[in-house]
């Protein structure tokens, strides 16, 4: 793993917030609590966790155009924010959360590979802090967060298995994968593809082992940051 740091309480108004840094990838994550849910679950008693994701114009080497000026989100943005949302929901007891929505916003300040993984990992920290506030005031009786959720990239670069790829490694990797897991090592989602070469079952198992190691380290950082 590249060096990991998580600074909490970085925004005054958000119910939960953190700045997560994994190497040179920096993502600002916030969680907002609202006393409403989407229409399709209204009246069900279930809570909802959703996410939004974006990259700032100079988070990359050259300036990116703001998606707001284009009038729509790009396909990559939509895919990533859906991934973040469903990953975080996998660690939530929606009955215990009650009929409310928590929106996790992930804004990439600086990108050097693994932005979706950093967003999921930091997003859980922001979510944890928001839920702690709900429990402190008694709005939620039992803890709705079942298990920490974290994500890490793994790939095969120059013929070698690599944990937590930075951008140069990611852009030239023969095999690239993102692994989303719980703190108890249960898989939520695996995105894995041959970018330049195929891979064997043994190689996939090696990358899964690496991912477990990385997620262990990330969960330890999450728990340290939230005091959980």
Describe this structure in words.
The protein is α+β, with helices and mostly antiparallel strands and 228 residues long. Helix content is 33%, strand content 30%. It has 6 helices and 9 strands, in the order ββββαααβαββαββα. The protein has a 5-stranded mixed beta sheet with strand order 1-2-3-5-4. A 4-stranded antiparallel beta sheet has the order 7-6-8-9, with helices on both faces. Strand 2 and strand 3 (25-34) form a beta hairpin. The protein starts with a strand and ends with a helix. The mean pLDDT is 95.
SSE topology sketch:
Elements: E1 4-8, E2 16-22, E3 25-34, E4 48-55, H1 67-70, H2 75-89, H3 94-97, E5 101-110, H4 115-136, E6 149-157, E7 160-163, H5 167-171, E8 175-182, E9 187-194, H6 201-226
Parallel strand pairs: 4-5
Antiparallel strand pairs: 1-2, 2-3, 3-5, 6-7, 6-8, 8-9
Helix pairs in contact: 2-4, 4-6
């Amino acid at each position: 793993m590249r060096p990991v740091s998580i600074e909490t309480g970085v925004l005054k108004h958000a119910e939960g917030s953190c700045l997560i840094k994994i190497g040179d990838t920096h993502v600002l994550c916030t969680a907002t609590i609202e006393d409403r849910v989407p229409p399709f679950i209204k009246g069900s008693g279930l809570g909802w966790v959703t996410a939004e994701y974006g990259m700032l114009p100079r988070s990359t080497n050259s300036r990116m155009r703001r998606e707001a000026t284009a009038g729509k989100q790009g396909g990559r943005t939509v895919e990533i924010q859906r991934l973040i949302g469903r990953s975080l929901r996998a660690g939530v007891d929606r009955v215990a959360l009650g009929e409310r929505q928590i929106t996790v916003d992930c804004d990439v300040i600086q990108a050097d590979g693994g932005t979706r993984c950093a967003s999921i990992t930091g997003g859980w920290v922001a979510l944890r802090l928001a839920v702690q506030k709900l429990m402190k005031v008694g709005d939620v009786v039992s803890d709705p967060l079942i298990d920490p959720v974290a994500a890490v990239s793994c790939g095969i670069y120059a013929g070698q298995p690599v944990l937590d790829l930075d951008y140069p490694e990611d852009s030239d990797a023969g095999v690239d994968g993102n692994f989303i897991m719980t703190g108890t090592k249960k898989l939520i989602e695996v995105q894995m593809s041959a970018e330049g070469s195929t891979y064997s079952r043994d190689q996939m198992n090696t990358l899964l082992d690496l991912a477990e190691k990385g997620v262990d380290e990330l969960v330890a950082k999450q728990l340290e940051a939230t005091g959980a």
